[in-house]
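Hey,
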Amino acid sequence: MRYAPVGAIYCHDGAHIQNDENTAVELYTGGAKMAPIAGERGKPDPLLMRSHIEIATVHGVHNARPGAISLSNLSESGTVYRSEDIAPYRSLADEYELTLHMDGARFANAVVYSGESPADLTWRAGVDCLSFGLTKNGGIATEAVVMFDRALAEQFAYRRKRAGHLWSKQRFIAAQWLALLTDDLWLVNAEHANAMAKELAGGFASHADIDLPWPVEGNELFPVMSEEMRESLRAAGLEFYDWPARPNMARFVTNFTTEPGDIARALEVIATV
């Protein structure tokens, strides 16, 4: 990012890098400040983000200097950024000379749902760097940082070494990429996970006492239901998280190993509670 370590990184207030990485972002940027922005369906409001950036710009050295925007695709609400959704953030990045980063831990699921190419969702939309994840899609501890800005790429090579991530036998990690990219296996896996989530969503949507406040666009579902219902589902063997984004919200995740039979059994349980 530009202006590290005195810069600010603007992201959704529910973003993974804001809430689930301890102070790792601050550590690896040398002290950059997280600047969370509210917004619906896991996406920061561009107008509110502009307001925060303008305030920081007016106050000069008294505020962290705006340095980067980070978008999660899928978002932490399980929603997708299409290329047109990225455009307002690219406009802000251009206007204020910011780096535009995409957290793609579930990038494969976003590509499948959107029907757009990986290029359309990244560099063609103005994304400067992508954290390309395979760990949630068939890999083991394998992520790639894809830089679309050569100047950032050169700087990042040094940061990677400093952070201890230049492994002596990195070919064993790279081998997973060869396997998952061959014949688009990474997309096949994501397509299956998305399909299983859509099937499960149908069961939640048909239940009178369960609300799905966000559209199911990937492999995550966030039903809202009573504590008694959640306890009943767990007692029947379903595993899920209680989710803090809203009262009584749960988080269900499907993946490339989820079987249709698993979903069928889950739907039977949901129908009986």
